[in-house]
Design brief:
With 416 residues, the protein is of the alpha/beta class. The protein has helices at 2-24, 79-86, 152-156, 159-172, 189-198, 215-218, 232-239, 254-262, 285-294, 300-306, 315-320, 325-340, 357-365, 383-390; strands spanning 38-44, 53-59, 67-77, 102-110, 122-126, 135-139, 143-145, 180-183, 205-210, 224-227, 244-249, 263-271, 309-312, 348-352, 372-376.
Length: 416
């Protein structure tokens, strides 16, 4: 049984390699056997638990017109990656696939008609999947040069967290002097980015919720810090009877109603995640149903009467579905300026080898991180972790053969 599973997994990897080889040709004809270079990448064989992840060899991509080829140094690991692994997102792509949406590295090649970059440039980038690999190709509009004193690990922790935080605070909620903000998961990457950006505006009060074991490490980054399991609504109202101006909610479920109840008149509630739906290692219909059942039904008339605003924000949709790359580029320019002025700095929780991806994802699942987890492509794994992540487990062999699924896997759309 194990032997058959291993053979099946090998066939799947060979299939992916062939598809990647066609793309690597970039329209110049199919490569001859032995011509295609290989790279290491994290492969998600199918949606489910940690056993579906392992490191495999893939054909190295080559840049198409308007793209940059990047030799990856570090990759960002986000909660959305955990939800992708479980298949816990709308219209999930077909597997097998390489996860990951952001990375940093060195420009290795330029596609036709690429302006403003040179081979050897240090860059950070958004990638529409495929970031967790030694080499990626992505359109130049999603690539940004790294400041001289920013490390590759910091650069991989920068785009998703700080763009998300900035867009919500300043583009959606119009944060101004003297306002107040409630942010959940204050110890995470986005939570810490929110806290830092709020500190750039005078007299902004930040209320944060986080697991109690994180409080000592992050207590100086927020004004008022509460245990995530405590009755934070009453705590906030005790300090500010009117409530807050902005609520940033990555939890969803019952926290939606609580957040709306805390808004001052003209306040803005923004939903940008739904981590309450993730309870176990695999997708749970019960958790999904419970979370949505707890969401307070929004009555437009009530919003009108109470002068409240409810909004949603998805950076990946904005980039890859709604084509707002130009807007994100302007935001990145502002953020890099703030970094150069030493007003913001990405907080890196820990570095992990590609072969340690399972352990890294488990740390996110357990909400154990303070700041961002980074996959360091050049980091050597510990022997036990390397063996666990590269061998094919019994559960990891349950890969599906998608008959007729011969479409290119390298540039699958985030939204299908």
């Amino acid at each position: 049984m194990a032997k058959e599973g291993a053979e099946k997994a090998e066939e799947t990897e060979q299939m992916i390699g062939k598809e990647g080889g066609r793309e690597a040709a970039g329209g110049s004809g199919s490569p001859r056997p032995g011509d295609a270079k290989e790279m290491r990448a994290v492969l998600l064989a199918g949606f489910g638990g940690l056993s579906k992840l392992r490191v495999a060899k893939k054909v190295m991509p080559e840049p198409q017109e308007g793209e940059l080829k990047i030799r990856v140094k570090a990759c960002g690991l986000n909660f959305i990656d955990l939800m992708v692994r479980q298949g816990n997102i709308d219209n999930p792509p077909k597997t097998p696939l390489v996860p990951g949406f952001e990375c940093s590295g060195i420009v290795e090649a330029l596609g036709d008609n690429v302006m403003g970059f040179e081979i050897g440039d240090r860059v950070m980038a958004f990638v529409n999947y495929n970031a967790w690999a030694e080499v990626v190709c992505t359109p130049a509009e999603f690539v940004y040069k790294i400041p001289d004193d920013m490390s590759f690990s910091e650069a991989a922790a920068f785009p998703m967290n700080f763009v998300t935080a900035y867009m919500m605070l300043f583009e959606v909620a119009n944060l101004r002097e003297g306002m107040s903000v409630l942010v959940h998961s204050a110890g995470g990457g986005v939570g810490q980015a929110v806290a830092q950006l709020c500190s750039t505006i005078p007299s902004v009060t930040v209320f944060g919720t986080a697991s109690s074991f994180k409080h000592e490490a992050i207590k100086d980054s927020v004004t008022h810090l509460f245990d995530r399991n405590a009755d934070y609504v009453q705590e906030v109202k005790r300090i500010s009877a009117e409530g807050v101006d902005i609520v940033l909610d990555c939890l969803c479920g019952e926290n939606t109603g609580k957040g709306l109840s805390l808004l001052k008149p003209l306040g803005t509630y923004i939903l940008y995640g739904s981590s309450n739906m993730v309870t176990g290692e695999t997708k749970s219909f019960f958790s999904f149903a419970k979370s949505w059942w707890q969401v307070e039904k929004v009555n437009p008339i009530k919003l009108y009467e109470e002068n409240k605003v409810i909004a949603g924000f998805s950076l990946l949709n904005l980039l890859f579905k709604q084509a707002r790359g130009g807007l994100i580029k302007r935001i990145m320019d502002k953020l890099i300026t703030l970094y150069n002025k030493k007003k913001i700095k990405p907080l890196v929780d820990s570095l992990w080898a590609l072969e340690e991806v399972k352990e890294a994802m488990q740390r996110i699942h357990d909400r154990g991180n303070i700041g961002k987890l980074i996959l360091d492509v050049e980091k050597a794994p510990t022997p036990l972790m390397a063996n666990d992540s590269t061998e094919t487990s019994e559960a990891g062999e349950e890969e599906e053969d998608h008959e007729g699924d011969n479409e290119n896997k390298e540039r699958m759309p985030f939204i299908q």
